[in-house]
Design brief:
Helices cover 34% and strands 33% of the residues. The protein has 112 residues and is an alpha/beta fold.
Length: 112
């Protein structure tokens, strides 16, 4: 089990959270807490950069959905960047690939 590390940075389009390690039952609450305190201005974009994600279970998927809800409540959008193949497969199997915008990398996701 890898500890979760979340790095926050600002891009021209809005906040970017780099999620590194395991997004699982033990660590998903940390992401949810961080997102609940995050200000996403209306009309902007919250990017979740998953390039460093090693594992994601159902709790992690729920945290991603919470991020989407938080962004929508702020009248902003959420984009998943660099989603690992195994996580993308899960999103596809449960139909969440239809509600998330997915970009191949953080640069694409933060392009205005």
């Amino acid at each position: 089990m890898s500890p979760l590390k979340i790095i926050t940075r600002d891009a021209e389009t809005g906040p970017v959270l780099e999620i590194i390690g395991d997004l699982d039952f033990a660590h998903a609450p940390e992401l949810r807490e961080r997102i609940s305190r995050l200000v996403v201005p209306p009309g902007r974009r919250l990017v979740l950069d998953l390039a460093g994600l090693e594992f994601c279970d159902s709790s992690g998927i729920t945290a991603l959905i919470a991020a989407r809800s938080h962004a929508e409540a702020a009248r902003a959008e959420v984009v998943l960047a660099a989603v690992p193949a195994n996580t993308l497969r899960v999103l596809h199997l449960v139909g969440l690939d239809q509600i998330f915008t997915v970009q191949p990398d953080s640069d694409s996701a933060t392009r205005p």
